[in-house]
């Protein structure tokens, strides 16, 4: 009737053994045996009732239980499938066999099934440091005061925002036929110390946005434009060549190398390199005198679960980023039956405990720091009460995920009830623009989302109601009108833009060819905001479901009837556009299976959609340090912005909702569209 009993023998205490009997079974079955009576509980036992306030199976499908003696000796380990709500709560009994009180350390970890990694013992990764974006200088003086060193033979990383700060001199070599270099963005600078007179080369070796012209100009005084010595416009002779190169003769001294670009509202990041022309690799500083250091020997993976002369250490353990864990001490009183309650809480998701090892078999109990009620602290003693268990104790299952009730929303908006999910996926290595791992657990509040992508007609309505594009550089820089005629087979991207200044029968088409700043301003004008990557993925995969799916319609592989994709004829593509009318962007009323359970449409195909986040890998500090609640990568001056969903030209392997994409903030691609979210209905 009962599952297998786990028995472990701990250290000798006062001439006798402290023997632990661990029995796992659902509480409902446990109490059905007569209110947790003597048929299942022995005298001198404490029954720990384990519950969770996380949703099952959305986030929790399994439980790992480990028991340690009071001195940290590992006594037992067990994984239990707990993917059905009816299986919660769970009971875990600990019994002493002698007349002396005992104490054990219990570790409980709730996690989604299959999210395991190799056991690392006390070598678990350190928790991420709190993330803080370094502000960019807002004046030229601040830029010059914080210049990094650019060593000859080495590189320096530079980044700048969209606020114009300085520009090359008109007569310095970077002027065009139209006049001075049209600087409309920020600037960055690096300090260069020249020890020996000679000919030097400065180049941009990597850049975002890729292919943007970054002029390089040298000054003897960073803040004084009149001290400019030479300037070189960016160019690229081949796809593998540096985008910008400056070569000049320099005398010994200290100089400032500056750079900027001409795209308005587009921040940038780049790496510049300095080298002495004609120098040997040693003189140029390229890996000169590099010392090869042998890697340290691998550390012992302690503690180990050693029983009866064999090593029973589990080969894997739950991944910290999707796990909620708790450490507690449990007391056992002789000749008494007691019960205690432990909730593995949502406020501890992703907050890995610090678990040092004392020796091969034992934890360093005094050094354990674990999450409790959202804060990191030493394990406490779980309070207990007389009796086998609380009769018919109510479970708190899923309460951590509950958001505010939905309110009636206006036409065209749909409520996404608050909830939780595992964001990302391990299924898509090497697919799409960016990795979808590591996975993470996210919680979203109740919010509202546009049922459809923002249309050309809705953009006209916004213009008529006072919405205005940023001044100074023309509308085409923010929302590109179509380059007539509208032609899905044109080699020019602008022929696929859906907007025209005068109506042309495409007001039902989704708006595309819109930059990220304009998309965000449009959503704000409508009383909303761009969705975060987390909220977009939640709507596309999870909202309205018990388990997250791969596509808005479920887990079935996409067909041409499921979404608007593969509708651009090039290089053998276009299988979903057998007729000319099916090619390119499609009007929003096109009926496909691309509908979520809540009724949100065209999240897999149609247009890719801008999100609020800066684009960064999930291993970037801005993601690793992001909270469980409504996480986002909030880099203020990111040159890349994240997009979600795919578009009319996408191949079917890219339609899965966890996949990510990115584009430059000022891109006016016909592939990018807009969908807004709102806090209120």
Verbal overview:
With 681 residues, this protein is mainly beta. It has 7 helices and 35 strands. Strands 3-7-4-22-26 form a 5-stranded mixed β-sheet. Strands 6-5-8-21-25 form a 5-stranded mixed β-sheet, with no helix packed on it. Strands 10-17-12-15 form a 4-stranded antiparallel β-sheet, with no helix packed on it. Strand 18 (306-307) and strand 19 form a beta hairpin. It starts with 5 loop residues before the first strand and ends with a strand.
Provide the descriptors you would attach to this structure in a database record.
single chain; 681 residues; mainly beta; five-stranded mixed beta sheet; 7 helices; 35 strands; disordered N terminus
Give the gist of this structure.
With 681 residues, the chain is mainly beta. The model is unreliable at 1-39 and 284-290 (pLDDT under 50).
Query: What characterizes the major β-sheet?
Result: 5 strands, mixed
Task: Report strand order across the widest sheet.
Answer: 3-7-4-22-26
Task: Compute the average pLDDT.
Answer: 88
Count of helical stretches: 7
Radius of gyration: 31 Å
Helicity level: under 10%
Any low-confidence stretches, pLDDT <50, length ≥5?
1-39, 284-290
Q: Quickly give the structural class.
A: mainly beta
Task: State the end-to-end CA separation.
Answer: 52 Å
Strand content: 25-35%
Which geometry do the CA atoms define?
Answer: globular
> Total strand count, please?
35
């Amino acid at each position: 009737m009962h599952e297998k009993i786990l028995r472990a023998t701990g250290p000798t205490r006062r001439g006798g053994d402290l023997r632990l009997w661990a029995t796992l079974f659902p509480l409902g079955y446990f109490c059905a045996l007569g209110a947790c009576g003597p048929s299942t509980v022995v005298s001198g036992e404490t029954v720990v009732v384990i519950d969770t306030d996380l949703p099952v199976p959305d986030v929790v499908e399994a439980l790992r239980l480990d028991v340690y003696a009071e001195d940290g000796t590992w006594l037992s380990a067990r994984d239990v499938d707990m993917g059905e709500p009816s299986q919660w709560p769970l009971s875990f009994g600990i019994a002493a066999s002698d007349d002396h009180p005992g104490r054990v350390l219990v570790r409980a970890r709730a996690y989604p099934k299959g999210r395991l990694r190799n056991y690392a013992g006390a070598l678990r990764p350190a928790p991420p440091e709190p993330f803080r974006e370094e502000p960019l200088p807002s004046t030229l003086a601040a830029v010059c005061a914080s210049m990094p060193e650019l060593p000859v033979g080495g590189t320096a990383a530079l980044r700048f925002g969209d606020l114009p700060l300085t520009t090359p001199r008109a007569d310095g070599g970077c002027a065009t036929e139209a006049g001075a270099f049209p600087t409309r963005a920020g600037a960055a600078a690096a300090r260069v110390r020249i020890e020996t007179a000679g000919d030097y080369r400065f180049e941009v070796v990597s850049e975002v946005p890729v292919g943007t012209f970054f002029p390089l100009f040298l000054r003897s005084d960073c803040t004084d434009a009149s001290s400019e010595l030479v300037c070189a416009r960016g160019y690229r002779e081949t796809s593998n060549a540096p985008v910008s190169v400056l070569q000049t003769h320099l005398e010994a001294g200290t100089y400032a190398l500056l750079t900027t670009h001409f795209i308005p509202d587009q921040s940038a990041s780049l790496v510049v390199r300095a080298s002495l022309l004609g120098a040997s690799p040693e003189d140029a500083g390229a890996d000169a005198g590099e010392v090869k250091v042998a890697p340290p020997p691998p550390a012992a993976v302690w503690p180990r679960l050693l029983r009866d002369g064999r090593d029973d250490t589990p080969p894997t353990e739950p991944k910290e980023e999707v796990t909620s864990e708790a450490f507690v001490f449990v007391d056992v009183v002789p000749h008494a039956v007691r019960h205690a309650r432990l909730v593995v809480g949502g406020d501890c998701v992703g907050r890995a405990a610090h678990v040092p090892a004392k020796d091969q078999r034992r934890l360093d109990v005094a050094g354990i720091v674990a999450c409790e009620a959202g804060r990191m602290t030493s394990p406490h003693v779980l309070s207990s009460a007389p009796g086998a268990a609380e009769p018919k104790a109510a479970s708190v299952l899923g309460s951590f995920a509950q958001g505010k009730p939905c309110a009636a929303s206006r036409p065209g908006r749909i409520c996404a009830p608050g909830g939780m999910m595992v964001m990302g996926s391990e299924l898509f290595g090497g697919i799409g623009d960016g990795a979808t791992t590591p996975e993470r657990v996210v919680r979203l509040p109740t919010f509202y989302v546009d049922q459809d992508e923002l249309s050309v007609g809705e953009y006209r309505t916004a213009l008529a109601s006072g919405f205005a594009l940023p001044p100074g550089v023309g509308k085409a820089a923010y929302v590109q009108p179509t380059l007539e005629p509208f032609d899905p087979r044109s080699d020019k991207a602008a022929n696929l833009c859906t907007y025209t200044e005068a109506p042309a029968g495409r007001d039902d088409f989704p708006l595309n060819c819109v930059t990220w700043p304009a998309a965000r301003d449009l959503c704000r004008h409508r009383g909303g905001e761009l969705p975060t990557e987390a909220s977009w993925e939640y709507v596309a995969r999870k909202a309205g479901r018990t388990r997250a799916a791969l596509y808005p319609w479920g887990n079935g592989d996409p067909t041409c009837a499921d979404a608007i994709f593969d509708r651009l004829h090039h290089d053998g593509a276009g299988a979903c556009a057998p007729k000319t009318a099916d090619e390119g962007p499609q009007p929003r009323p096109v009926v496909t299976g691309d509908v979520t359970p809540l009724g949100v449409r065209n999240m897999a195909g149609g247009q890719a959609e801008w999100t609020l986040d800066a684009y960064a890998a999930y291993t970037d500090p801005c993601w690793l340090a992001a909270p469980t609640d409504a996480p986002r990568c909030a880099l203020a001056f990111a040159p890349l912005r994240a997009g979600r969903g795919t578009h009319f030209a996408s191949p079917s392997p890219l339609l899965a909702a966890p996949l990510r994409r990115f584009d430059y903030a000022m891109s006016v691609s016909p592939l990018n569209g807009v969908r807004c979210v709102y806090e209120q209905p």
